[in-house]
Write a structure and sequence with these properties.
With about 100 residues, the chain is mainly alpha-helical. The protein is built from five helices and no strands. Keywords: Signal.
Length: about 100
């Protein structure tokens, strides 16, 4: 029993460390762009799912974009209607793991 408790405590500590490391990761989003992305995304996605699910999906997408795209790429994507197809595909690939289940 003692060994299980120690293992559980270690796992919890590692999880907390991982969460803290992710929270401390620098943002590639230009000032205000992430909030605007999440707001606009949530507004569009909430037409198909409830607002809470939409926001979770959009937060996931923002995090994935932050992890996969540079600040310059994010800025280009958010401000340029004619961003390159390669950049658009890179963004779509980044957020593809953020699944959402449509409401019926």
């Amino acid at each position: 029993m003692m060994r299980f408790t120690s293992t559980l405590a270690l796992a919890a500590s590692l999880t907390l460390l991982s969460v803290c490391a992710q929270a401390a990761a620098p943002s590639n989003w230009p000032a205000g762009a992430r909030d605007n992305f999440v707001k606009d995304c949530t507004s569009a996605a909430s037409q198909n799912v409830d607002v809470k699910t939409a926001k979770e999906h959009c937060e996931c997408g923002a995090n994935k974009i932050n992890a996969e795209l540079s600040t310059a790429e994010i800025k280009d994507l958010m401000t340029n209607q004619n961003a390159s197809p390669q950049l658009k595909n890179k963004a779509v690939a980044a957020i593809s793991s953020c699944k959402v289940v449509k409401k019926k």
